[in-house]
Specification:
CATH class of the largest domain: Mainly Alpha
Distance between the termini: 42 Å
Strand content: 5-15%
Number of domains: 2
CATH topology of the largest domain: Dehydroquinate synthase-like, alpha domain
Largest sheet: 6 strands, parallel
Radius of gyration: 19 Å
Number of helices: 13
Bound molecules: nicotinamide-adenine-dinucleotide
């Protein structure tokens, strides 16, 4: 795919449309990001078919259907998705049925713009799949468009990106180049995170984080995720926990659990974070920067654990360490309490 990167790079949007042969695009956003969408649509003039501010977390099927109808009614020949994973996910839902090309303008660090993974939620259950049609044709990473992302969401979204790097480093289809990208992505993220948490309009910090998001998102797109993403998928889908918050709380505990079985991952992350204990370091960093620490804070109860353990162990999937009910319960108990991860993960 094509990528434009850097402060002010949104000015290349028309050029990207020309390269892709797009005449009139539908601009997608959430209700909260209409100002950014309007500003971008204005620069396109009559090459905007309209703005659809209907994106919602986890792409409910009725939300997807409405957006498809709007795209068809206004005669759009492509979509510009301005926002985080939810908005890009809506663009993907349109593309999945219509094949309309997506130009993604990411404003969080979730990484969806770099993957061919789509997700749709129906009756409380999220289905996901891969399809080449939903991979954005062009991505514009402009740090200026991330300056308004609230500090806490910036931190949790950055942790969400680091989670992609962690699981790419021990993925069954890991490769040397992806591992380099994962290590560099995690490094860029932890360099940018404290700067952005302290000063959300710090352009250099924002640029480092968006660079990290690009790398980590590419790792997500190129590899198969394991236990950590499985748990977060369950916590979001079955218990309604917020996506990036759940990633932030769970990551140090899965990392500690898997580290003994994934020494190359632990070493790479240790280099990126400049520590001998990446799990503890990530937990301490999240805490210091004001991110939620426990699943309890996010609304999970101890009585939810039986179902979570059952869902996480029902079907087999790749993970460096065998996934057992005891192991999953141990991780979830630690994450529920918010205590720092044990060094050995056991
Ligand atoms: P999000 O897109 O839901 O955004 C969270 C909130 O932040 C929204 O209200 C949004 O309007 C607001 N926001 C986003 N950017 C902003 C900015 N720059 N300034 C001010 N407000 C801003 O959150 P997310 O974490 O990016 O995405 C989560 C969703 O994406 C989940 O549904 C997840 O499953 C999905 N996802 C999919 C993939 C994939 O590959 N398919 C990858 C990652 C995430």
């Amino acid at each position: 795919m094509r990528v434009r990167f850097g402060v002010g790079s949104i000015s290349f949007l028309r050029e990207e449309m020309d390269v892709l042969g797009l005449k009139r695009v539908l601009v997608l956003c959430t209700p909260e990001q209409q100002d950014s969408a309007r500003m971008i649509a204005k620069t396109l003039g009559d090459r905007t078919a309209g703005i659809h501010a209907g994106a919602r977390m986890h792409v409910p099927v009725d939300v997807a259907q409405r957006a498809r109808e709007v795209a068809s009614r206004v005669g759009a020949d492509g979509c510009v998705a301005v926002g985080g994973g939810s908005t890009i996910g809506l663009g993907k839902a349109i593309a999945l049925e219509s094949g309309l090309p997506i130009i993604a303008v990411p404003t969080t660090y979730a990484g969806s713009e770099m993957t061919s993974v789509w997700g749709l939620t129906e009756n409380g259950e999220k289905r996901t799949g891969r399809d080449a049609r939903v991979l954005p044709r062009s991505v514009i990473y402009d740090p200026e468009l991330t300056l308004q992302l609230p500090p806490t969401l910036s931190v949790t979204s950055g942790m969400n990106a680091i989670a992609h790097a962690v699981e790419a480093l021990y993925a069954p289809n890991a490769s040397p180049v992806i591992s380099l990208m994962a290590e560099e992505g995690a490094r860029a993220m932890v360099q940018g995170l404290p700067r952005v948490a302290a000063e959300p309009t710090d352009e250099e910090g924002r640029t480092a984080m968006l660079y990290g998001a690009w790398l980590c998102g590419a790792c997500l797109g190129a590899t198969t995720m394991s236990l950590h993403h499985k748990l977060c998928h369950i916590l979001g889908g079955a218990f309604g926990l917020p996506h990036a918050d759940a990633h932030t709380v769970v990551l140090p505990h899965v990392l500690a659990f898997n580290a003994p079985a994934a020494p190359a991952m632990a070493a790479a992350l240790g280099r990126a974070l400049d520590t001998n204990s990446p799990a503890r370091e990530l937990h301490a960093l999240g805490t210091a920067l004001g991110a939620p620490r426990s699943l309890g804070e996010l609304g999970l109860r101890e009585t939810d654990l039986d179902l979570a353990v059952e869902l996480a162990t029902r079907d087999p999937y790749a993970n460096p360490r065998p996934v057992t009910p005891e192991g999953v319960r141990h991780i979830l108990m630690a994450a529920l309490s918010g205590r720092p991860p044990a060094e050995s993960g056991a």
